[in-house]
Amino acid sequence: MDDHEGPMRRVLELARHGQWRTSPNPLTGAVVVRDGRVVGEGHLNERGDHAEAVALDRAARAGGAAGATLYTNLEPCCWSGVGKHTPPCAQRIIREGVRRVVIATADPHPKVDGAGARMLRGAGIEVVEGVLEEEAARLNAVHFKFHRTGIPFVTLKIAQSIDGRIATGGGDSRWISDRDARVMTHELRAAHDAIMVGVGTALADDPELTVRLTAPLRDRQPLPVIVDSTLRLPPGARLTAGERSPLIFTTDRHDRRARAALERAGARVAVAGGDGGGRVALDRALAALAGAGVTSVLVEGGAALHTELIRQRLFDKLVAVVAPVVIGAGTDAVGDLGTARLVDALRLERVSHRQINDQAIITGYRSLAATLGRAGSGPLPGAQRQEAGCSAVS
Amino acid sequence: MDDHEGPMRRVLELARHGQWRTSPNPLTGAVVVRDGRVVGEGHLNERGDHAEAVALDRAARAGGAAGATLYTNLEPCCWSGVGKHTPPCAQRIIREGVRRVVIATADPHPKVDGAGARMLRGAGIEVVEGVLEEEAARLNAVHFKFHRTGIPFVTLKIAQSIDGRIATGGGDSRWISDRDARVMTHELRAAHDAIMVGVGTALADDPELTVRLTAPLRDRQPLPVIVDSTLRLPPGARLTAGERSPLIFTTDRHDRRARAALERAGARVAVAGGDGGGRVALDRALAALAGAGVTSVLVEGGAALHTELIRQRLFDKLVAVVAPVVIGAGTDAVGDLGTARLVDALRLERVSHRQINDQAIITGYRSLAATLGRAGSGPLPGAQRQEAGCSAVS
Is the ipTM, as predicted for this complex, more than 0.90? Predict the structure, then answer.
C-alpha cells in the first residue's frame, strides 16, 4: 500500500504557509509525486494561484506530471465564473495526465462539494479521499463552518486572570496580559475577517480594533463590528475614524438621530432584530455578516457578549489568555450560563496549551463536529447555499 | 576558576530524590570530589542519615575524603541533642580532612544558621557559599518559610474551570478535574504535613483528606485540619474516622456540647481566637500549627478559606488546576479581595506551567522573598526563634 500520509503531511505543512494571507480562500497545499519522487510543490500564493496550479507548474519544469500522483488537502476546484480569479484546477489536472489524485477533504464550497472529485473520476483518474481528513478539516475549519452552516467561524478571545476576571471592581483591565500576548491577539485579528465587540467594551476602552502590533500583517485589517442595541457609540469614537468603516448591529430600539450621526461619521448601521430581551439577535447578526462575505469573526469582549455567544452556542473556538494574576471579585469573564450540573457544563474539545511568557494560552473548540457542519448545526435562516455542480469550461 | 555549578546541579538532583520522604527534614544532597573525580554521593535517606554522611561513607570506600571538596546544598549541621537522630556533619567533615566545602544556602534551622559554616572555617576549611543559592532555597522553600517566619509553608490548590469557578450554581463540583489531576493532588497531599479545608467544604464533600490515589505514598498521611468557627462539623464525618485524628480550629463562638461530641469522636479542637469578624484567626491558627511541628499546609478549599488566605497574604504557593470547562455563574474560586486597580492585583512570581491531559496546571509563588524570609515577613507573634549556635561535641 502506498504511504499517502507522508506526502499529505507535507501538503498540510505547505498549506499552513498561507496563514493570515488567504482568507476568504481556504488554506491549500499540493505535492506532485512522479516515480516515487516529489517533482512539484505549492501552496496558494499571494497572487491567488491555487496550490495545485503552482505544484503542476513546478512539475512541468521537472518533466511534467503525466502518470504522477497529485496530493492536495482540499478537493480541486472545478468551476470558473464571476468572483473567481483562477482557472479550474480539475481540468488542469486532467490535461496534465495525472494518474491519481489523493485528497484529504472534500471542498465544502457550494460550487465544488464533491463535483471536483467526480470530474476527475469521470476523466479516468483514480481518486483517493479522506487521507488525514480530520486534521485537514481542522486546518480549514473557517472554510467548513462558513460554507456548511452559513454563519462565520466565531473565535472568542478572553484575556483574564487565573480566577476568571477580565477587570477589577473598579473596571481596570489594562493590561491583564502582557505585550507579547497582545501581539498574539493582533495576529488573531489578522487571521479573522471581522472583529466584534459589545458597545460596553467600545465605550470603556475606545479601542481601534486594528492590526498594529505585528508589522507584516498590517495590510490585513479586519472589519470592526459593534453590537450596540441602542446606538450608544459616540460618532467621535476611534472606531469610526479607522481605515475601515465599522459595522454596527442594533435593534429597532435605536435612536434615529444617533444613527444619522454615526452614519455621517462613516459607520454603517444594520438592524438585526431584537432577541426578545431587546438585545441584538446574535444569530441573525452573524448570518448577516456571512451574507456580506465575512467568514470569520474574532470576538474580543465584553463579558456580556461572550456570555451570550457561549450560552447560545454560537462560538466555535475559545482562546483564553490566562495571566498569573489573582484579581478577586470584579468583572467576571463569563456570566450566568444556567449550568446546574457539572455534566451540563461546556467542556471544550481538542484543547491545546501553550505559553507566552508567564501566561497560559488555553485553546479549545466548542464542538468540532458542529463547526465542520457535521452535527447539530444545519444552515441557519438567512444562510444561502447553492447546488453543487461544475460547469465544464471549454 | 573551579566549576562549582556543575557538581552543585548534581547535588540538587540528588536532593530531589528525598521528595515526599524527608519532611520535616529539608531536602539535601552531597557530592565529594577528589582530584577532579566524584568519589562519593548521597542524599538524606530513609534511615535519616544525612546526605554528607552518606557521601563521606562512600568516599571512605573509595580512598577517603582527605583533601577533597564536599558540595552540599544546605549548610552542614553542627549540633546534637534532643530530637536529633544523627551526629553533626560539620565535625565529621573536619575529621575526614575535607579541604573545601561548597554550600548553596545557609541552613535557616535556628541551631545552625551560619554556625555550621563558622565551625568549618574555624577548622581551617575553605568554605564557598551561595552557589545556585536561589534554586537551592526554592527547593527547600518549606524549610526556609518554617524556620525563618515561624509559620508553615502554605500551598493553595484550586481545581477550577477556565472561567474561575469551582462549582456550579447548584453546588456540583465533582469532578471538574480528571483522575490524573486528582492523583497529582494526592501527591501534593503527601508532600505536605497537613491538609486544611474550611468547614463548608467538609460539610459539602465529607472528604477523607487522605493520600489514596498514589500507592507508594500512602504511608505519608498528612494531618487533617478543619477551620470551623462554630463547630458545625458532625462527629460522624469521615474525617473523624480516619487514621489520623483531625485538628479543628474554632473560635469562642463554638458550642461546648459540639466540642465534647467531636472530641469523643477522636478530633482535637483548638480555639484560635476570633479575627474580629467572628472567624478563626488564620494567622494564629497557622502559627499554632507551626508550634506543633507542622512545616507545610495544603489548603484544598473552599472559596472562603482561599479568599481569606489570599487577602491576608498568608499563602506561599498557588497551584491552579484549570480544566477546559466553562461553567458560568456558580461558586467563584476566589471572592472579594478589594482589588481596585490592576497594579494592586496579586501577580504570582516564578510561574510555571504544565499539562495533565487537557488540564493546565499553573503554579506560582505569592512572593518568594517573603516565603524565604527575606522581605516583608518577619516572625509572627507566636513564632519562636532560637539563637543560632553549635555546641561542639567532644
Answer: no
